[in-house]
Automatic annotation (TrEMBL):
Lineage: Bacteria, Pseudomonadati, Gemmatimonadota, Gemmatimonadia, Gemmatimonadales
SUPFAM superfamilies: vWA-like
Pfam families assigned to the protein according to its UniProt record, in alphabetical order: DUF58
Name of this protein: DUF58 domain-containing protein
Domain DUF58: 47-254
InterPro entries from the UniProt entry: DUF58, vWFA_dom_sf
Length: 295
């Protein structure tokens, strides 16, 4: 059974004016909105360089040559497309919290879906191709990056057709992603493949790719209810333990320490890291992410 997340219309309207520049020059040759690694003569003027044999004579600055009797070519910051692939964790822990309250039920999954749709819309608005990979109990479902009209709504429908369950591995997929792509990983990083995923993402960053690790955390995980008597592992319900006041205090401290270590580990492999709690409005989280404001 799928989980209908919500109507994305308000979110899409709120992120309409956002722009998401690449963190580093893009190794692409299709014209787009991001600064390319290779400089040419078709973009915005950047600087001069002394003429070298083999340079295109059309790039010579003839006025400067006439004044100084020295040959220089004009360099420009060309711009390129940045394919964006959103990788979304649909494992069982992303269904937290369970229960009957429609306002909080499956809040982690609903937050992950909203982040994916909002960021896809921002990337697509710049002309960038956007794609999706969802890892859950049925394996990994992928929609390759596309820039055609309506692709954001296709991604939203794909997400709405999924109910988080079981476990799925995203790490093997990363080896096949072109280095010129932007990777956006949306997960709670509680799965068994979290370390492998980070290592694979780090390898992508080392090849020159853009990597963003978005950490979705339920508000109840940050501040567990004080009347909670039993803690249950969402990915293995057989694992249960009492949760009294002392256990709650110890958990809060350990969870904070773990999050800090996770953030450091992601940044050490060249990724940006941003924590998104389920009680943060999705549009505000998207705005914070594209501006590079971590939390």
């Amino acid at each position: 059974m799928s989980i209908r997340t919500h109507d994305y219309a308000a979110l899409l309207d709120q992120v309409r004016s956002l722009r998401w520049p690449a963190r580093r020059r893009v190794a692409g040759n299709l014209p787009g909105a991001h600064r390319a690694r290779l400089r040419g003569s078709t973009g915005e003027f950047s600087e001069y360089r002394a003429y070298r044999q083999g340079d295109d004579p059309r790039r010579l600055d003839w006025r400067l040559l006439a004044r100084s009797d020295r040959a220089y070519v004009r360099l420009a910051d060309d711009h390129a497309l940045l394919p964006t692939l959103l990788l979304v964790d649909a494992s069982a822990s992303m269904a937290f919290p369970e229960g009957t309250d429609a306002g909080t039920r499956h809040a982690k999954w609903r937050t992950a879906c909203a982040l994916a749709v909002g960021l896809a819309a921002v990337a697509h608005a710049a002309g960038d191709p956007v794609g999706l990979a969802i890892a859950g109990s049925d394996g990994v479902r992928t929609l390759p990056p596309r820039s055609r009209r309506g692709v954001v709504h296709e991604l939203a429908r794909a997400l709405d057709a999924v109910a988080p369950a079981g476990s799925g591995a995203l790490a093997p997929l990363l080896a096949r992603v072109p280095a010129s792509s932007r990777l956006v990983l949306i997960s709670d990083y509680l799965g068994d493949d979290a370390d492998a995923l980070r290592q694979a993402a780090g390898a992508h960053a080392a090849r020159g790719g853009d990597v963003h690790a978005l950490h979705v955390v339920a508000a109840e995980e940050l501040a567990p209810p004080r009347d909670l008597a039993l803690a249950v592992d969402p990915e293995d319900p057989r694992l249960r333990r009492p949760f009294d006041a002392a256990a709650r205090t110890a958990y809060v401290a350990r969870f904070a320490e773990w999050r800090a270590g996770l953030a450091r580990a992601w940044r050490e492999v060249g990724a940006t890291y941003a924590l998104v709690a389920t009680d943060e409005p999705p549009a505000r989280a998207v705005r914070r992410i594209v501006r590079g404001d971590a939390a």
